[in-house]
Design goal:
- By secondary structure, the chain is an alpha+beta fold.
- The protein has one domain (22-102): Ribosomal Protein L30, Chain: A (2-Layer Sandwich), CATH 3.30.1390.
- It has 4 helices and 3 strands, in the order αβααβαβ.
- It has a 3-stranded antiparallel sheet with strand order 2-1-3.
- α2 crosses α3.
């Protein structure tokens, strides 16, 4: 007959079962001399779900300071949004650069 371990010997405490929050990553848009302001606003609204006023403000920051924060997401989402934005730009022959870095 098979032996069974005693009941109650393997107990997980609450501290052992807590999940860590995923690290967050910033998606940054970089200024260039070719991508139009209108296209940057479109990308911010369409890909990053920004409101029109927010998208316009971020676009101005990119234009004036060279860099703007499109959003902060878990790594996989940040990477996907960055690639989607650059693919849309590439299809329209814009050299828009999006980078992903840890927050």
């Amino acid at each position: 007959m098979a032996e069974f371990p005693e009941h109650g010997t393997d107990v997980l405490t609450e501290s052992e079962t807590k999940l860590e929050k995923p690290k967050l990553f910033k998606v940054l848009l970089h200024n260039d001399d070719f991508t139009t302001m209108e296209f940057v606003v479109f990308v911010l609204e369409y890909v990053f779900m920004r409101s029109a006023p927010d998208a316009f403000a971020i676009m101005l920051k990119v234009h004036n300071e060279g860099l703007g924060l499109a959003g902060v997401y878990p790594y996989e989402i940040a990477n996907m949004k960055s690639e989607k934005a650059m693919n849309l730009a590439k299809a329209r022959e814009y050299p828009l650069l999006c980078t992903v870095e840890e927050e």
